[in-house]
Design goal:
By secondary structure, the chain is mostly helical. It is built from 20 helices and 11 strands. The N and C termini lie far apart (about 80 Å). The protein binds glutamic acid (GLU).
């Protein structure tokens, strides 16, 4: 084994948003690089001018940053192998294509769209594979020069030798074989002078000294063309690893139709970065045990390409929700506080005025009961406004003949307290129930209803303590007046 530096890249085309599958590719590259103390490179593959989307690159960068996948080299980072935007590397591709032409490994093609369409139709009728028939490979040098001088529109194609077996090794799939007969003479340079994905991708992977190409399975059929290019240039091939497809629970290919596929959608829904990363990491990889909860550092330590599965990975949102709850639970309260304040500012309670201490008490009391930061508001709005109504079902079940009387005594007793602590409320409530020879629930349930309007929530003494004496007394009064 050489101790060559490991260099991997994430090479997205800026389509406007980062697909969840793209995030998985980026993450596996990142984890592999960090595990091997190598470099994670970001290269933007923007040579398809028809698909150009304004702002797409910035959007991609900010999403990757949010996910914590900062590139060691890339458009906004330094690096010795830039530029990292393919549209700024056109000279490099032009220089390289010339070499292939000289060696007869690539050739000009001047065929018109009409001819190509006719050819395809004919092949379809004959039920043979539709591919270019190498018509222009047979042009003489003079003919080529003449056409170039005449500025006849042209492309440059890869000259694939027929009847050859093309092999490559894939770290995840083992040896992969293709027959060259099934491969079209791929266009390398388009008529607008821009390279195609295949050509730019190979030239850049070589020049950027990429050691491992880790990408989605959908690219595996492109790889024979790529390995031919490496061979034609006499370049050392990188190692390949094609990641399994992402599937919906019904095993169909993950698609927009069945749910969200943009990482931004998950950000907006309030998923934590750590939970999403943890979830994505498990889409096609496991460490060989049943551990499911991982921090980024644990993932970096445990990750290996050898343990990536071949079979498609099922995208199971229930697991993501579970992981979100787990990660939220292990997030320190002061961090949750920042996120909660942000949620409040976006909610109906944007004008709610309270101290950080108040919110921290809510965070602690509700921690085991929420899976998302926004649920700190949705699941307990009563911390932000007094109940407007009282859950009828709970009233029916819990409001007994003696509830009025019990609550009246309870509130007259807590009224006497000065700066009560949680224990003081508890003591008073227990004593009262003892005196009346009733179970605690007999008072706890109507009290909770009076304070929150609902039948479930945090511990009753947390609830009353957080709301405070004055607010609780007001709420009990109001309930006594309204619940009959
Ligand atoms: N630009 C390709 C994409 O959009 C990159 C594929 C590869 O990694 O080779 O995914």
């Amino acid at each position: 084994m050489s101790d060559k530096e490991i260099r991997v890249r994430f090479a997205p085309s800026p389509t406007g948003y980062l697909h969840i599958g793209g995030l998985r590719t980026a993450l596996y590259n990142y984890l592999f690089a960090k595990n091997k103390k190598g470099k994670f490179i970001l290269r933007i593959e923007d040579t398809d001018r028809n698909r150009y989307v304004e702002g797409a690159v910035d959007n991609l960068l900010s999403t990757l940053n949010w996910a914590g996948l900062q590139a060691d080299e890339g458009p906004k980072s330094s690096g010795d192998y830039g530029p990292y935007l393919q549209s700024e590397r056109l000279d490099i591709y032009n220089e390289h294509i010339k070499k292939l032409i000289v060696d007869g490994k690539a050739y000009y093609c001047f065929c018109t769209q009409e001819r190509l369409t006719e050819l395809r139709e004919k092949q379809k009728k004959e039920v043979i594979q539709t591919k270019y028939d190498k018509h222009c490979l047979h042009l003489t040098e003079d003919e080529i020069i003449q056409k170039l001088n005449d500025k006849t529109p042209n492309v440059i194609r890869l000259n694939i030798e027929p009847n050859k077996e093309i092999f490559f090794n894939d770290i995840i799939r083992g040896e992969v074989t293709f027959s060259s007969d099934t491969i079209d003479d791929q266009v390398l340079i388009k008529s607008d002078g821009f390279p195609t994905y295949h050509f730019a991708n190979v030239v850049d992977d070589h020049l950027m000294k990429i050691t491992h190409v880790i990408r989605g399975e959908e690219w595996i059929s492109s790889t024979p063309k790529h390995v031919l290019l490496y061979d034609y240039f006499n370049w050392e091939r990188p190692q390949f690893a094609h990641l399994p497809l992402l599937l919906n629970p019904d095993k169909s290919k993950l698609s927009k139709r069945q749910g969200d596929v943009a990482v931004e959608d998950y950000m907006q829904k309030g998923y934590l970065k750590d939970a999403l990363i943890n979830f994505i990491a498990l889409l096609g990889w496991n460490a060989g045990d049943d551990k499911e909860y991982y921090t980024m550092d644990e993932l970096i330590n445990a990750f290996s390409l050898e343990r990536v599965n071949k079979a498609g990975a099922i995208f199971n949102l229930d697991k993501l929700d579970w992981l979100n709850a787990e990660h939220l639970r292990s997030t320190p309260n002061d961090k949750i506080l920042i996120m909660l304040k942000d949620e409040i500012s976006k909610s109906n309670y944007s004008n709610f005025d309270c101290t950080d201490e108040y919110l921290l008490l809510i965070i602690e009391a509700m921690k085991e009961r929420v899976s998302f930061v926004k649920e700190y508001i949705e699941k307990c709005p009563y911390f932000f406004e007094p109940p407007i109504e009282y859950d009828e079902k709970v009233v029916k079940k819990r409001w007994k003949d003696d509830s009025q009387e019990l609550l009246k005594i309870f509130s007259s007793r807590i009224e006497q307290l000065v700066n009560p602590r949680k224990e003081d409320y508890e003591r008073i409530l227990k004593k009262l129930c003892e005196e009346k020879e009733i179970g605690l629930g007999r008072l706890i349930h109507p009290l909770r209803l009076a304070l929150s309007g609902v039948g479930i929530g945090p511990g009753i003494f947390d609830l009353i303590f957080i709301l405070g004496k004055e607010e609780s007394l007001k709420r009990i009064d109001k309930a006594l007046d309204q619940i009959k």
